[in-house]
């Protein structure tokens, strides 16, 4: 998938959220080193989000949060069988990373599957390969995935209909994390690739 296709997909994304809720905790500008980078719409105190995890990457290797978050990292929870939201959101994230690449910022896009029953490392490698050459796909045991989801306070719920093509309701936030700092911002679905790239660059410059 080329960048034009990614931009087209991202432009079709509908604003809104699937599952989960917003958390808004206002802080004074003097308390926040990244105040100039925030939109004030979503986030507030992202220090309450994120934490240790152990998962399996798209090559089958076991990795921890310390292995993954070694620089600016965009993290999204979803699943490869998702018919619309996940491809659109990840295409948007990938396009933002392409824009950041052009500006000299190295940002890692990460896709964590909440569907460990179907999302094998091989499927994740195929999915992420369409999006961006650096996008990292992660899965794990159901217990490992639940632990990672709890750490980031994401929501997901399997629609257990007995159909092998079941759907999963899930939250749709993208988290910006840094090593040593953890999550510093949360982006919603209404963020364009250009806006996300500008905001991420601001955070990187402010570290």
TrEMBL record:
Keywords from the UniProt entry: Copper, Disulfide bond, Metal-binding
Gene Ontology MF annotations: metal ion binding
Disulfide bonds: 82-86
UniProt xrefs under Gene3D superfamilies: Glutaredoxin
InterPro entries attached to this UniProt entry: SCO1/SenC, Thioredoxin-like_sf
Organism listed in the record: Rhodovulum strictum
SUPFAM superfamilies, per database record: Thioredoxin-like
PANTHER family cross-referenced by the UniProt entry: ELECTRON TRANSPORT PROTIN SCO1/SENC FAMILY MEMBER, LINALOOL DEHYDRATASE_ISOMERASE DOMAIN-CONTAINING PROTEIN
Binding residues for Cu cation: 82, 86, 170
Family as reported in the entry's similarity comment: Belongs to the SCO1/2 family.
Protein's name according to its UniProt entry: SCO family protein
């Amino acid at each position: 998938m080329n960048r034009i296709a990614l931009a087209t997909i991202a432009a079709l994304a509908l604003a809104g959220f699937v599952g989960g809720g917003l958390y808004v905790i206002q802080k004074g500008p003097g308390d926040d080193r990244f105040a100039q980078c925030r939109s004030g719409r979503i986030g507030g105190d992202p220090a309450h989000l994120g934490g240790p995890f152990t998962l399996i990457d798209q090559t089958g290797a076991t990795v921890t949060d310390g292995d993954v978050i070694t620089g600016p990292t965009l993290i999204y929870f979803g699943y490869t069988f998702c018919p619309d939201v996940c491809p659109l959101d990840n295409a948007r994230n990938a396009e933002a990373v392409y824009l950041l690449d052009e500006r000299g910022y190295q940002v890692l896009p990460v896709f964590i599957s909440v569907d460990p029953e179907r999302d094998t490392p091989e499927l994740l490698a195929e999915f992420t390969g369409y999006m961006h050459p650096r996008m990292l796909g992660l899965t794990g045991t159901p217990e490992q995935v639940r632990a990672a989801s709890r750490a980031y306070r994401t929501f997901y719920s399997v629609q257990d209909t007995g159909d092998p093509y079941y759907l999963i309701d899930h939250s749709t936030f993208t988290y910006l994390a840094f090593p040593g700092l953890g999550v510093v911002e949360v982006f919603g679905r209404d963020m364009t690739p250009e806006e996300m790239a500008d905001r991420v660059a601001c955070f990187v410059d402010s570290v």
